[in-house]
Amino acid sequence: MSSTGPATDLDQVVLPAIPPVHLLSGQVAALQVTDRLHRGSQIVGRFETSGLAGFKVSAQGRPLRVQLALSADERSVSGWHTGRTDMTGGLPRLLQIRSQGRLRQCVLLRGRKAHARVAFDLTPEEIPDDGLICVEVLDISEGDGVCDELRQAVSGLVVADGVAGVRLDKVVFEEPPATDFDPDTLDGSRCELYSLISGGGLANLNRQGVRPLRSGMFVINPVLKDRFGSSGRITLRLGTRAEPASVIPATWQRVNSELRWLRHATRKLLHAAAPSVERVISVRDGDMGTPDQVVHGNITDLVLPGPATSPLLVIMAPCHGAVPTLESGTAC
């Protein structure tokens, strides 16, 4: 056995991931560090609770774009790994996505078939010489850099231990493209697919059109350089829609549903169905004051600066008998 410095012939050579690369399994050599992440074979892994995954990546002094695919399913509950499960009670999960010690984006997941996309860029200075890139997924109640004002605002409205059982389905490392040709306007579902907003996750990643916001809140994430919204302000067009009457045989539940639909249709005819935003809270800095919102008939335009460093949480006012929706986002 020979040695050179601290290494020996028995040390295994770890081959780094060479961008562009899509990592779809937890059995790859590039996944060097895990903390409370159970490795998978057809997914990267499933989090036991708030945890971390560390990847060895050959960046070679270049910036990197990191993209994650997260999802929740029937096993996404506290205690899933021990067999003693604790149900979530139907509340959404509000999660922090961190990398290299910094908060990058936040994700809101609602239900058991919710998928979310995350995207952020790392500068060459943020990538160490050994190429280790760490991705943390934390509950909103944990870690530093999150203001107490936001934590108090969502207390009781989101799941405690929200990371429990969440799947890390895919990790992508690639160089940021030189130019992105994004449209000036995205529909509500595309806003979520682009990771600009997170409103509970998409069950169908091919869905287009209006995005219902059944959680009564949504996150606006920092925009990527030269991507949609990075040039200045963004306008989010908000609406409402009535829940459709059930197709089951007539019951009091169906009658009540139909009455709610009729009340909402009447409000729309009277141009009184526009939603309202109660608060906009910076995850890092706290309440941003009275939001800039303009009402046009049954539509509310929420105008905000494109967030650069901290996600924003938008909390909607209650829409009795209706569901608030994100109609579209427009880069100003």
From TrEMBL:
Source species, domain of life: Bacteria
Protein name: Uncharacterized protein
Organism phylogeny: Bacteria, Bacillati, Actinomycetota, Actinomycetes, Streptosporangiales
